[in-house]
Amino acid sequence: MAQTCIKAWVHGIVQGVGFRYSTQSQARQLGLQGYARNLHDGSVEVMACGEQEQVDALLAWLRAGGPGSARVDKVLVEPHQPDEAPRGFSTH
User: What CATH number corresponds to the domain at position 51?
Assistant: First the structure.
């Protein structure tokens, strides 16, 4: 199966509520590689690489609101081609 990578920007109440760590846990369960990191504008950037079905599952989870402590207002997504394939899923 083909590998795909995306970057997503999650907006809403997504910082200070365990969002990055919940995203990391969800991504690892799905077997994805990448990261979740806070941005200065209060959003969270997520880069995820893996099988299309698993990437889609993570996006569905993000769009559904992520962890119960968060409030997701919108998720912007674009394809991404990293210079180097990520290893594991980290938080920054």
Answer: 3.30.70.100
- Among this protein's residues, is 71 annotated catalytic? no
The residue range of the domain holding 62 is 16-68
Over the stretch 9-31, which tens digit does the pLDDT of each residue have?
Answer: 999 999 999 999 999 999 999 99
Q: Parallel, antiparallel, or unpaired: how do β-strands 44-51 and 3-13 relate?
A: antiparallel
Q: Which of 20, 37, 63, 71 is catalytic?
A: 20
First to last CA, the chain: 29
Task: Kindly state the tokens that stand for 19.
Answer: 């969002």
The active-site residue, picked from 28, 37, 38, 63, is 38
Does residue 38 carry a catalytic annotation? Answer: yes
Residue 32 lies in a domain: yes
Both tokens of residue 57? 């599952």
Give the HSE-up count for residue 77: Cα atoms under 13 Å, Cβ half-sphere.
Answer: 14
Token pair in block for residue 67: 């962890």
According to the model, what pLDDT value does residue 1 have?
Answer: 59
